[in-house]
């Protein structure tokens, strides 16, 4: 039985360790979009390379995140967490000194592996270390500080890009790791699952990551139609089919497919795919639009996008309480529609756009929609399965959001007719941006229709989310659950819940 009290010196050290570790992944995931124009200019990269700079990280993170918690259970949560922190820092150092875009993309993929190791561990360490009476408060503090990190990220990233340079967006992780790892080794107790485990589903993880990688490659390179693109696309679909087959027949799969027997769980994950695909595509292009077309500095663009994160952080808990009273169907229908309206308002953002009259209204409406839908989405995911599988459900839902974002960043420029050099021309990028925003809005409307047609009231005794404050705009919050004598924690790329 964990017995560390939050008010004790050790409890404070544990909380600091988990916040520092999760902040590394949080800062990285929120600042890179702001740095993309400067990275492209400095490394002479085309749009496809910028897409891979974002997607290489999401690819390995999404493909391996479901195994991260299992590694901690078997080999020790603190040990795997520290390995993830050190791995992430070394990969960040490689990103910071990358001589060309190829090395940068490879280093970003390595970062994703480190993120898959450390992000599940942050919440797992809290739940495995603190006394049950203090655990909820500790999770609340962890998620609150994580939300602050999400809010500070774009501002800090913009300041670094405009000041010492984009490389410091990645190098900043090194001193954080030098502080975090020794504290973890000295002050955080080791924990693990004493029960026996089956084999790790390495084949399932490989097939899932391969399917995502191959489909992403085909989408990014599809503007130059070739035999290679077609072969890659077919291979990606085949890997996806093989992944489903393997997961269905393995005795201990990474993603047990029987969890989708719950129609509510399946429906909410379809909504998740829609809304987070739209969010990821929007934030990828919006940071470029503000700099390439509207003439904002990196700092200006990062600061401009803060209202959505601030609204999420301030009001997500209240949104969850409202959904408890009225049920999830209305919030999950109205929320995506508000987000679609906010994204369509971004069509007003062009050359010399006014922040107060053009940018801010769109982001406020978008943020209001996100506040409306994110907390009910998490609650519905947890309530749609048995309590014993709530951690798994959260992990699957988070992986679905990551995969949706990965595909959206790859596909949206293609669907909008964005050429390889579009981001170097204000007129060309603005025209493509105007074609992309209605696509994002349409996907959100589709999510609203699915929610209205399929989401049902939650049972009164269902499990409630532990992470009430949430500041990430591209992934749903992380949830863990203690059941059957073991702690099941499934991770996400962002380090707050």
From TrEMBL:
Q: Where is the region Disordered?
A: 470-497
Q: Which GO terms describe its molecular function?
A: transmembrane transporter activity
A single GO CC term, please? plasma membrane
GO biological process per UniProt: response to antibiotic
Q: Which domain of life is it from?
A: Bacteria
Supply the InterPro entries for this chain. EmrB-like, MFS, MFS_dom, MFS_trans_sf
Question: Which keywords does the record carry?
Answer: Antibiotic resistance, Cell membrane, Membrane, Transmembrane, Transmembrane helix, Transport
Does the keyword Cell membrane feature in the UniProt annotation? yes
Tell me the ranges covered by the Major facilitator superfamily (MFS) profile domain, including all copies.
14-459
**Which regions are flagged for Basic and acidic residues bias?**
481-497
Q: Does the keyword Flavoprotein apply?
A: no
Q: Where in the cell is it found?
A: Cell membrane
Pfam families given in the database record:
MFS_1 (PF07690)
List the transmembrane segments.
12-36, 48-68, 80-99, 105-126, 138-160, 166-188, 200-220, 226-246, 267-290, 296-317, 329-347, 359-383, 395-416, 436-455
The record's annotation in PANTHER family points to:
EXPORT PROTEIN, MAJOR FACILITATOR SUPERFAMILY MULTIDRUG TRANSPORTER MFSC
**Any idea what this protein is called?**
MFS transporter
Q: What is the lineage of its organism?
A: Bacteria, Bacillati, Actinomycetota, Actinomycetes, Kitasatosporales
């Amino acid at each position: 039985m964990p017995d560390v009290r939050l008010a004790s010196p050790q409890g404070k050290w544990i909380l600091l360790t988990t916040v520092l570790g999760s902040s590394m992944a949080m800062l990285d995931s929120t600042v890179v979009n702001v740095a993309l124009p400067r990275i492209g200019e400095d490394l002479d990269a085309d749009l496809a390379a910028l897409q891979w700079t974002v997607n290489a990280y999401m690819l390995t993170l999404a493909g391996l995140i479901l195994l991260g918690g299992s590694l901690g259970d078997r080999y020790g949560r603190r040990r795997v967490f520290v390995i993830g922190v050190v791995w992430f820092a070394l990969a960040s150092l490689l990103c910071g000194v990358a001589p060309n875009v190829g090395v940068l993309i490879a280093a970003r993929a390595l970062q994703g592996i480190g993120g898959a190791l450390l992000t599940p561990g942050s919440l797992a360490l809290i739940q495995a270390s603190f006394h049950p009476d203090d655990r909820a408060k500790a999770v609340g503090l962890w998620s609150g500080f994580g939300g602050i990190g999400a809010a500070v990220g774009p501002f800090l990233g913009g300041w670094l890009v405009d000041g010492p340079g984009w490389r410091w967006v990645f190098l900043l992780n090194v001193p954080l790791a030098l502080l975090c790892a020794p504290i973890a080794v000295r002050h955080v107790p080791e924990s693990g699952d004493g029960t026996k485990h089956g084999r790790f589903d390495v084949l399932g993880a490989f097939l899932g990551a391969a399917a995502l990688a191959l489909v992403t490659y085909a989408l990014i390179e599809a503007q130059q139609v070739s035999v290679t693109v077609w072969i890659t696309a077919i291979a990606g679909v085949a890997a996806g089919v093989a992944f489903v087959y393997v997961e269905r027949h393995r005795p201990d799969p990474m993603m047990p497919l029987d969890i989708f027997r719950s129609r509510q769980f399946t429906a909410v994950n379809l909504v998740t795919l829609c809304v987070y695909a739209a969010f990821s595509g929007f934030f990828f292009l919006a940071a470029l639009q503000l700099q390439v077309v509207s003439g904002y500095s990196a700092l200006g663009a990062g600061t401009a996008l803060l209202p959505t994160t601030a609204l999420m952080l301030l009001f997500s808990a209240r949104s969850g309480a409202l959904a408890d009273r009225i049920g999830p169907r209305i919030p999950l229908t109205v929320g995506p529609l508000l987000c679609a309206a906010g994204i369509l308002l971004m069509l007003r953002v062009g050359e010399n756009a006014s922040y107060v009259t053009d940018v801010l209204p769109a982001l406020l409406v978008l943020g209001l929609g996100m506040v409306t839908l994110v907390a009910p989405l998490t609650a519905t995911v947890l309530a749609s399965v048995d309590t014993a599988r709530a951690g798994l459900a959260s992990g699957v839902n988070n992986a679905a959001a990551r995969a949706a974002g990965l595909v959206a960043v790859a596909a949206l420029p293609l669907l909008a007719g964005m050429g390889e050099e579009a981001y170097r021309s204000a007129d060309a990028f603005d025209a493509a941006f105007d074609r992309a925003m209605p696509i994002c809005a349409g996907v959100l409307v589709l999510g609203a229709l699915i929610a209205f047609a399929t989401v049902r009231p939650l049972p009164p005794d269902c499990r409630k989310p532990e992470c009430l404050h949430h500041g990430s705009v591209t992934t749903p919050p992380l949830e863990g659950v203690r059941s059957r004598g073991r702690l099941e924690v499934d991770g996400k790329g962002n380090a707050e819940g």
